[in-house]
């Protein structure tokens, strides 16, 4: 083990975070943090808007080594919340997309041929889970409800606070680093997806879900918060236009809830739309490229009606709209 790796693995939080000043949140327990930002600490986003209940749940994970599962609609800021909390704690954070191609070997490791002093030798190369487990790292599994069953059972033992990992091939039992933390994000609460929006997700083993200490839902932010984010991210947009964009998103979400639309306007979509406006200087064309073109053709007239109502402009040519009536 090199001196740099040894220093990294021995590192522990050395200060306490003032959560009221940092997050505008008063919590009844101390929250540890690192005084210096090192490798893998996310870049802080000064425009980020925190949701207090979600931040409190995430801080429980960092302060008390609780396993935290965050679920909610796409583009609501689940992974970003964990990353931005970690950024303000100077806590290294690594995200892994738990798609169907991630295998047990990717998490645990495998024997590989490597070069040592000019010679080819076979040695065990640890996977991302083993690597993170031995370091002061917050490991975030994104798309948790899309993981393969055999991979999920590898993770299950670690869901206990002091869960140790047994490497059968190495005859080793790994004890997690004192500053190792585990989080997950998903579009569903582990019960599967009945909406049809999230193809590829699956119902999770309920014995495993029972091991997550904290489960929190993150919905879309209130209009005022979304406006603040857009205004901070895209200062070139005037406030009236931002307000109209957020109002349009609200109407689309309401229509989705009533079963009239099958596609949601997320905060990510709003940001993309605003960026497109800056490139094209045409709100209608920017919106078509950001959202409308992925809507079902039969639903586009309704979206165009919302656009007209909120931005007082035509989104679809009348001749095009008439084809659907």
Automatic annotation (TrEMBL):
Record domain CbbQ/NirQ/NorQ C-terminal: where: 226-292
Keyword terms of this UniProt record: ATP-binding, Nucleotide-binding
Domain ATPase dynein-related AAA: 70-193
Recorded GO MF terms: ATP binding; ATP hydrolysis activity
Keyword Acyltransferase: no
Record domain Cobaltochelatase subunit CobS N-terminal: where: 12-41
Signal peptide: none
Pfam families referenced in this protein's UniProt entry, alphabetically: AAA_5, CbbQ_C, CobS_N
Family designation: Belongs to the CbbQ/NirQ/NorQ/GpvN family.
Protein name: Aerobic cobaltochelatase subunit CobS
Organism per entry: Litchfieldella anticariensis (strain DSM 16096 / CECT 5854 / CIP 108499 / LMG 22089 / FP35)
Lineage: Bacteria, Pseudomonadati, Pseudomonadota, Gammaproteobacteria, Oceanospirillales
